[in-house]
């Protein structure tokens, strides 16, 4: 089933995988207020959408996302309320991705810069075409990429994050894979197949289990080691009370495919 929630954002669902496609190639798929609002609205709906097991973020054209719309920003220079609302909405969308009870995969074809790089870093997984490139170039125009820094610094080591932030230089897809910004790099011609295979593999798991695991992953990251083990021990004990855990164990021992109920 395919639909269009907004001309800026295309929505497609197939076999449990919902693809959100940034659809403003003429504007380099920038995160304007309108684009951010469209993403926000879709993510709200997807949180409880039983037909969606995995979300893919993609983009039309040769640029994945060039960050904020600088023309829009220029037109509002001096308006602190607008700037705060812009960055607050952007931050809210990034947190929606992290908090979404479904895995989110970035399909990166082309350039991802500034808040566009932040968007990639906010996703749970990322697959990039070999010609994709990444940067946090705010320093080049006198605007340090402070909000993109939050997601970036939680995905790569501090020194790699600082190098990107302080130089503003573009890095290749291969380098992005080396430092952990993306999971894998494939030939541009194989990007769709690689993303579909990864999304399909994940979509075949218990939705209930994926929700539990994703939530626990991000919560334990911020905990001291002993608290993380105490927390995840409780998570696993509770997880074992779920119908899907019982089904999965029985299916494994019986050497048959599991039939998930997502509960």
Automatic annotation (TrEMBL):
Record InterPro entries: ClpP/crotonase-like_dom_sf (IPR029045), Enoyl-CoA_hydra/iso (IPR001753), Enoyl-CoA_hydra_C (IPR014748), Mitochondrial_ECH-domain (IPR052377)
Source superkingdom: Bacteria
GO BP terms in the entry: fatty acid metabolic process
Key words, A-Z: Fatty acid metabolism, Lipid metabolism, Transit peptide
Cleaved signal peptide residues: none
GO molecular function: hydro-lyase activity
Function comment: May play a role in fatty acid biosynthesis and insulin sensitivity.
Family: Belongs to the enoyl-CoA hydratase/isomerase family.
Protein name: Enoyl-CoA hydratase domain-containing protein 3, mitochondrial
Protein's organism: Marinobacter psychrophilus
